[in-house]
Design brief:
- By secondary structure, this protein is mainly α.
- It folds into two domains: 81 residues; 95 residues, no CATH class.
- It is rod-shaped, with a radius of gyration of 32 Å.
Length: 200
């Protein structure tokens, strides 16, 4: 009788031990989720796309592993792999956040340089346009160039607004478009000058 009682107590203690070892690592999982949210808030989806995709994939795999374990009978659950996956997911999310911060700072610098460069070229283009050769058939071209110049200035204004809103990729794209259009006008004016010289 005493032996049976000891065996029963041992079995109960073993079941309690197994059950305690099979608790889901909820704190680690939530910590990984918080890190992923921090990466999203840092705009990793914009400035560190690959790192963010990796973090999201690892988080999705962690969720699947949690579901798989929770779908098992309590005594057969094992969360050792889940803990490892939670740590990996958190590390990936932290890496994505850091990459996003670096990428955003780099994008800010590139946008700032692009805007300054575009403004300088726009100013020189405006000066060239004021002294563009006027002759038969050229007035229409100059009017068209002035309209293009207005579009350039609008793009630069939008670039400034985007930069102020920390939309650095958009700011750079607007500045690049303005720069390209201004260079095109300069090329047209240079060609017109050469043609005017050729007529004299």
């Amino acid at each position: 009788m005493r032996t049976r009682l000891l065996l029963a107590l041992s079995l109960v203690m073993m079941l309690v031990l197994v059950a305690s070892c099979a608790k889901p690592p909820q704190d680690q999982v939530e910590s990984a989720r918080a890190s992923l949210k921090a990466a999203q808030d840092a705009e990793a989806g914009t400035y560190a796309k690959d790192a963010m995709a990796n973090a999201e994939q690892q988080m999705a795999a962690l969720d699947e592993e949690m579901k798989a374990q929770q779908g098992k009978f309590a005594l057969f659950r094992s969360y050792g792999k889940t803990k490892e996956m939670a740590s990996a997911a958190q590390a990936a999310a932290d890496s994505a956040k850091n990459a996003a911060q670096e990428g955003k700072a780099r994008a800010r610098d590139e946008a700032s340089m692009a805007i300054n460069d575009a403004k300088a070229i726009a100013d020189s283009t405006r000066t060239m346009l004021e002294h563009a050769p006027v002759g038969k058939g050229s007035m229409t071209d100059i009017q068209a160039m002035k309209q293009d110049m207005a579009t350039i200035m609008m793009n630069l204004s939008e670039a400034d607004s985007a930069f102020a809103a920390e939309q650095y990729n958009e700011a750079k794209a607007k500045a690049d478009a303005a720069r390209s259009s201004a260079q095109s006008i300069q090329a047209s004016i240079t060609q017109a000058r050469e043609m005017a010289r050729g007529r004299h």
